[in-house]
Amino acid sequence: MADLMKGKRGLVMGVANERSIAWGCARALAAEGAELAFTYQGDAFGKRLEPLAASVGSSMMVDVDVTDDASLDLAFARIKDEWGSIDFLIHAIAFSDKNELTGRISNTSRANFKNSMDISCFSFIDVSRRAAELMPNGGCLMTMTYGGSNRVTPNYNVMGVAKAALESAVRYLAADLGPQKIRVNAISPGPMKTLAGAAIGGARATYRHTEANAPLQTNASLESVGGTAVFLASDYGMHTTGEIVRVDGGYHVLGMPRAEHIG
C-alpha cells in the first residue's frame, strides 16, 4: 500500500509533538498519499509542529483557538481559499484542569466542567459543521475518545463525562451528515504515552495494567491508531459511520483482570 489516500486532502487538529495520537494519524495518512494541513494553538506548539509538518510535505499550518469563533472562521476561510474543499478532518483536542481529575467528581467546579465540555466535546461539533461545508462530495470526520467514557477510570473524572458527550455527538453528527455522504466516527485507543496522557494521575500504572490484562497483552501504538484512521478516511471506510472504533488490544471486553492478576 502507498496510495490509499492519493488525491485526498485533510485537516489534522491536535498535534502537540511527535508522540501525539494526531501525529500518528497524520504520518500514516501522509504515507498513503494524503495532502495535509494542520492547526496548532500558540507559538510554542507551532514551533514543535513546523518540522513535523515539513516532514510530510505540508506547509499549511494555522493557529487556532477552538474556543474562539473568529479564530475558527479565519482558519477554515484560509483552507477554503487555498484548497476549496477537504476530504477528511481529524480532531484530537481535549482539555481539563488536571487538578480536578483527581479526587471526587462531585467536587468538579462549574467553570472547569464548562471548559472541559467546550474544548473536548463542543469543539468537535463546531469544527464538524465548518468542515462539512468544505465537503461537497462527502468525506470523513474523526475524533479521539477513551474507554473512561463509559467505564469508571481512576483520575479521569470530568474527562470521562466529556468523552461520553463526545461519543454521543459522534452518533448525532453521523445521522445529521450522513445524507451528505459525510461519515463521522471516533477512535478509542487504550492508554498511550502521550503528552495528554501524562496529565492523567497514575498514567504509568494504568498503562502497565492494561498491557498486562488486555487479551492481546499490548497497548495501542501510534501505528495501529494511524492505520485505523487511514481505514476510516479511505474509500474502504465508505460504509462505516457513527462508530466508536476501539484500538485497545481488546481491553474493553474484560469484566475483571486476568486470573493470574487477581488476588
TrEMBL record:
GO MF terms held by the record: enoyl-[acyl-carrier-protein] reductase (NADH) activity
Associated pathway: Lipid metabolism; fatty acid biosynthesis
SUPFAM superfamilies assigned: NAD(P)-binding Rossmann-fold domains
Reaction equations catalysed: a 2,3-saturated acyl-[ACP] + NAD(+) = a (2E)-enoyl-[ACP] + NADH + H(+)
Active site, renumbered: 146 (proton acceptor), 156 (proton acceptor)
InterPro entries membership: Enoyl-ACP_Rdtase_NADH, NAD(P)-bd_dom_sf, SDR_fam
Binding positions for NAD(+) per the UniProt entry: 14, 20-21, 41, 65-66, 93, 163
Gene3D superfamilies the UniProt entry points to: Enoyl acyl carrier protein reductase, NAD(P)-binding Rossmann-like Domain
Family membership noted in the UniProt record: Belongs to the short-chain dehydrogenases/reductases (SDR) family. FabI subfamily.
Protein name: Enoyl-[acyl-carrier-protein] reductase [NADH]
Species assigned in the record: Pseudorhodobacter antarcticus
Lineage of source species: Bacteria, Pseudomonadati, Pseudomonadota, Alphaproteobacteria, Rhodobacterales
